[in-house]
Every structure is written in structure tokens, then in C-alpha cells.
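Hi R.,

As promised on Friday, here is the backbone we talked about, encoded as C-alpha cells. Could you run it through your design pipeline when you get a chance and send me back a sequence?
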């Protein structure tokens, strides 16, 4: 089953833990056919993740050159 988080869960670092420990466990308990939950990201979220990773990498490089 694939789930797209909405509202304040979007972009929250804890959303994957909430998805696995909360939503997945509850659905598997009440719906035995559910075996696994996967988070689906919107195209905007994918781009945001890429931009954040790029920024983090540039900051690491910059910090390393400051030493």
C-alpha cells in the first residue's frame, strides 16, 4: 500500500517514523492483507529533497575548506 502524507506531516523529519510505527502498524492490525506501507512523495517534495541534499553537500564542502 502506498501513502502520501498530507498537512503538517509533509516535510516533517518524523513523518517516516510516524508512517512506519503508527500508520503501518495500525493498518496491518485492522487489515491483515496490508503487508507494507510505502511513503509516496509528490514531485515538489522530490525536488525539495534534492535541493536540500545539494545545499547540505555545499555546506559540508565549505566547512571543510574553512578548516
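Update: got your reply. Pasting your designed sequence below so it's all in one thread:
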Amino acid at each position: 500500500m502506498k501513502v502520501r502524507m498530507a498537512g503538517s506531516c509533509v516535510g516533517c523529519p518524523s513523518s517516516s517514523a510516524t508512517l512506519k510505527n503508527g500508520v503501518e502498524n495500525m493498518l496491518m492490525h485492522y487489515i491483515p492483507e496490508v503487508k507494507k506501507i510505502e511513503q509516496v512523495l509528490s514531485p515538489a517534495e522530490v525536488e525539495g529533497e534534492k535541493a536540500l541534499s545539494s545545499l547540505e553537500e555545499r555546506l559540508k564542502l565549505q566547512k571543510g575548506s574553512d578548516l
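One thing I noticed while checking it: The longest helix spans residues 43-66.

Thanks again,
M.
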